[in-house]
Design a protein that fits this description.
It contains 21 helices and two strands. It is an all-alpha fold. It has a two-stranded antiparallel ribbon.
Amino acid sequence: MRVPIRQFGHTTGHQSQQWHKSPLNPNPNQQLSRHTPVQDLQRSKINIHLTLASPGHDERQNIEITQAIDKLQEAMTGVGCDNSTFISVLTDSKFQDPQTLHQFTYDYDSQTTLNLAEQIEQKTQGFFRVALMALLKGPLDHDVYTLEKALSGEDADKRALNDVLLCRSNANIRGIVRKYNSTPGRDLVQLIRSKVDEDLFRLYNVILSGARGEDAVLDMTEIDVKVAEIQRLIEGSPTTDLTPIIDILASANDAGLRAMSSAYENKYQRKLDHGIARKFCGSSMEDALLQILDYATDRGKSDADGLWNVLRPSTKDDSIFIYRALRLYWGGTERLQEVHAAYKKTYGMRLLDNLNGSLSGDYRELMIALIGEKSTSTYMYR
């Protein structure tokens, strides 16, 4: 059966439909010619693929979903609940695509006349509950939820804002802004303006306007001009207007940032991130610009540092950790492999060992199932 799987496109920010490539039908767009004689097919030993059932006509799929629903209902029978069943069902590989998990949640609610999210709220607790609820929300809704929390106080949670807004594609930024502003009376840009200083708002405004460069062939002459301008401003007087640096780095794509970083080091024999750290030392802008540069130049190490910084006892922050861990889970196998390799190289220990030492109970088991070394996530949401 060819099952239409709806996913957030990692380059468009919109949901798109893709055909699931089953082992029996690896390329559903490729068909055998109707004029090819059967005897020729047999002689050349071309495999003839069986026509699979249309969506909704494969009882095996219905049985799997029904079994998963039954398991969750059984796990919530009585006063307590079987948290291990929550973990095994909701982190199953067939639900790694958030749209598939969303459909399962809808099916659960429809078939049981209950509400899975409400039941999880009632039956679980602590950060185990927080992580499960985030998983059910999916990438876009959890981005919006994280923004809501970050902007709810008198001062914005700048670390959470950076996590949601920095290093994202224009398409995903548009999706986030559209979703946030879909609630009447809300304007994300104006709210951020009221919560952060002028320089930081300039950075966020460039990003929120969708002005970040799209993937394209790099113009090295333009790269050299920008590098020279950054160097002039970094070496300028303390009163030098630094907003051009903000504009240049906020509007560049990852390839452009890597090129600028490399050109800067080759030309001036020092690292660009060191110059940024010195010029913006101690400010919120320093953290934001370095996060942009670090992610572009070494994504694996940037992700590893992000987890390490919120897992160590002195700076532990479970809410931020859950957000970053789920972004990795939704980011796909390649990104998870990068962070595991970088973690071992940078900190001399496996991420799995750090999870075991820093977390506990069912919360620990859930996060290991999501981003442990055996995770097989293939979904991508950048």
